[in-house]
Amino acid sequence: MAKRRVKKKEYEKLDDANIDRVSNLLMGKPPITKKKACELLNISYNTTRLNKIIEEYEETKAYRKKLYDSNKRKPVTDYEVKQIVLDYLKGESMSSIAKNLYRSTNVIKNVLKKYSIPQHKAGRLHYQNPELIPEEALCEDYETGELVWSARYNCIAEIMFNNGIDKYGPIYNIWVYGKFNERAYQPWYELGSLPILKELGIKAKDITITNRLDLEYK
User: E strand or H helix at 31, and its extent?
Assistant: First the structure.
């Protein structure tokens, strides 16, 4: 019979990092009291539930370590490559992807580097001064409907149409996905080519987390 898992309430602080901290404090010298442990987890004082929360966390931690150790000796599969690219371009962090696939963050980073996937830039977005696109990802000619990386918006965008040429080259009308979900204009040198998407058979519907409005291409 399947073991019943602990039900978690929204206000309870039962993220892995906090449970791990409390678990270590309970085993410390001197250990904290179970009442204090419940307070730190923001749960009602209930030693039986506290023990189940810690036990479940330790079991999951051991299981994850077992899978991680097993995967260290295995090459990255095609399925994992596709999942890494998809999740990262949707906005997931490297550490989150590594956790989900039982891989190290270095493995994730190496896959992204191998396929020239631009990295998310942390901190404040500098709209007027976007990051430079790596030379290997630069392309002047894009097709309608092609998915690209927008350096200005730091996310995936879709080519709508070529909006003309200035002294530096083509300007593209794009649809920006992610939290922006809007139409914009960008020069070719602020857009990154993502040929790996075609190789992996990834479409806009697979990678975008917001819907493009029902707009017609020019």
Answer: none
